[in-house]
Structure to design on (688 residues):
DNA sequence: CTGAAAGCGCTTACAG
DNA sequence: CTGAAAGCGCTTACAG
């Protein structure tokens, strides 16, 4: 800027005025400045600007796993809105590692991002402290944090699972296996609660063995499915608590030479582009991923702009059951079509 | 920092020294400083630091589509390496829009990122200029740029496609449909070239109608497959030039009530987690996504550190054919199993 | 081991 | 419409 000012024989103020359009500049001076800018190849320095203005025009986005279509769909929507509003995105993935998550929050805070959108991992207490220390506007995605008041956009996990459950029950299923997510997580607990709700509602007794602990990843779901399907009394249907675990379920089924939906019905949580291209076309609960991302971005921008003040706002969105072909009708009371396992 | 210095009754230099460990500080003063830091809740300001040092410790990563598992797998690997080396990542997605891509490059340059990793979209000339103007170390992923010397990591697209082609030909296929990517792109052209290479090598005549122009997206591939399979002489196998187009292929096949591999063989490019969980388990060319990302990150870091100087280094990785179950053996010369379409 | 001071490249009242 | 100058929060020779 100084160099430009000298070359154009104007003050540094004038250069700033033409670069940013913050002040009226006479045509001749403007032209001199523009020529100097081209000649020198001057490019504004956003770092210096940030130091002065106290704003970086960047938002920190913290997610569990960039490899999971749920997150990437949400992030895509977030970025679109944010970019249009003049923000950049620093993306941090923590692989559901709590320590890494806190690292990232600290780094983002040091870098003076203008706000945080986070889909949190792990226990509330720790995270709450980390978030409080940033003194940054934050919007939570996918879950809320007890004792921490801020904007959030979540979905109705409980009723979503209830709706798949009702669907399966309406197809005659009574023994429904459930592969949970991490029960330390909000979504993990809520989804399991929805399962239990539906059982109660239908007057079906809970059965220990039918609920298998998963970790939202494919490998555990694989093992869980094996356990489920080799047990003495196996289920006629399985619900997976997220998209990645469905992979494990299907692989385990392949391994056992069980086919879906003939031998076993499967329903998932989260939709993804491949879900209705291959077989079986997966019946699943689609989360409104675009809306989640857009809302999160809007909430944050309004906070930063000061258009929104006071108490945290909660946006609660609904999942949508996509009935495809991975669940079949079954005669209530019948056990799974035998495959020579009757001896068990 | 000033506040801390005053509270601890030391100079600002001393505070800097204990925060960064850049200089030895006597124990008592160190303790005074640390106490003051806690009391005040001081957090270092990375923006100010960057202005002074001229380094932001952030890398710009520019990709086409965050929704595509190929990119996300690569980005995941990039981030892991970069994070360990103390860098953050500003991720920019352009949806294969050239203008947006240039916008992003400009923004990243203004923000003074220390380097750029980009998987480029569009024509060379424009992009080359945009990149040159940044005066930043850049590493290209997925393609090279004529006339622009820099580090790059690419894969052998041509021989990769040749290997699927050989495989299909060995299964007896002679009429092989090819759904290309954008021919304006390096990978699009190379993959098509591999197809033609293999045809020539096997002494099979090229046939216009068997090559369909795609755009790397699912929708075009859907249409292309429809055209391919409703033509008078339809192929016995289809190759898709990337992962997303396979979705379109499978959907079109579903629509036509054609099943794979019984009625038609399908092979893809890019592997993804769902490819071997659902049916048909997809035969595809897996790109070494982790290696691509890791190498790209390493190349860039070495450049920034000054450990690497001079001419751009090219890392060329090989794709790997994953034979699964979506291609079947066929009697050479036979046309596709008729489905009452003989009248055509 | 420690401090005073310059300077990174901007923005922005203040004064003209 | 224009400029001189302070200051954002750091780092880092330089001097002691």
């Amino acid at each position: 800027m100084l160099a430009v000012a000298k070359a154009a024989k104007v003050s540094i103020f004038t250069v700033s005025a033409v670069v940013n359009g913050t002040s009226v500049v006479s045509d001749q001076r403007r032209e001199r400045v523009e020529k100097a800018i081209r000649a020198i190849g001057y490019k504004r320095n956003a770092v210096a600007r940030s130091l002065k203005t106290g704003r970086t025009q960047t938002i920190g986005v913290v997610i569990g796993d960039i490899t999971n279509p749920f997150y990437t769909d949400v992030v895509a929507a977030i970025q679109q809105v944010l970019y249009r509003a003049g923000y950049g995105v620093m993306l941090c993935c923590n692989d559901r590692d709590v320590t890494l998550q806190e690292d990232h929050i600290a780094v983002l805070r040091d870098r003076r991002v203008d706000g945080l959108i986070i889909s949190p991992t792990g226990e509330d207490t720790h995270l709450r402290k980390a978030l409080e220390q940033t003194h940054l506007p934050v919007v939570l995605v996918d879950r809320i944090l007890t004792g921490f008041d801020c904007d959030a956009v979540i979905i109705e996990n409980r009723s979503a699972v209830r709706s798949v459950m009702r669907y399966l029950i309406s197809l005659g299923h009574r023994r429904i296996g459930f592969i949970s997510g991490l029960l330390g997580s909000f979504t993990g607990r809520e989804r399991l609660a929805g399962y239990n709700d539906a059982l109660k509602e239908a007057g079906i007794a809970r059965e220990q063995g039918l609920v298998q602990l998963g970790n939202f990843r494919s490998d555990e779901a694989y093992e869980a499915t094996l356990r489920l399907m080799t047990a003495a009394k196996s289920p006629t249907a399985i619900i997976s608590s997220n998209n990645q675990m469905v992979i494990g379920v299907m692989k385990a089924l392949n391994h056992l030479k069980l086919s879906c939906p003939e031998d076993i019905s499967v329903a998932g949580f989260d939709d993804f582009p491949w879900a209705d291209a291959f077989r079986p076309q997966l019946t699943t609960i689609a989360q409104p991923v675009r809306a989640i991302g857009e809302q999160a971005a809007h909430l944050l921008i309004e906070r930063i702009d000061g258009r929104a003040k006071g108490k945290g706002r909660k946006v609660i969105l609904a999942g949508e059951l996509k009935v495809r072909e991975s669940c079949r009708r079954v005669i209530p009371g019948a056990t799974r079509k035998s495959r020579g396992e009757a001896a068990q």
Summary: Confidence is low (pLDDT under 50) at residues 338-344 of chain A. The first strand of chain A starts at residue 58 and ends at 63. The longest helix of chain A spans residues 186-202. Residues 1-2, 12-13, 16, 20, 22, 44-53 of chain A lie near DNA strand C (CB under 10 Å from a C1').
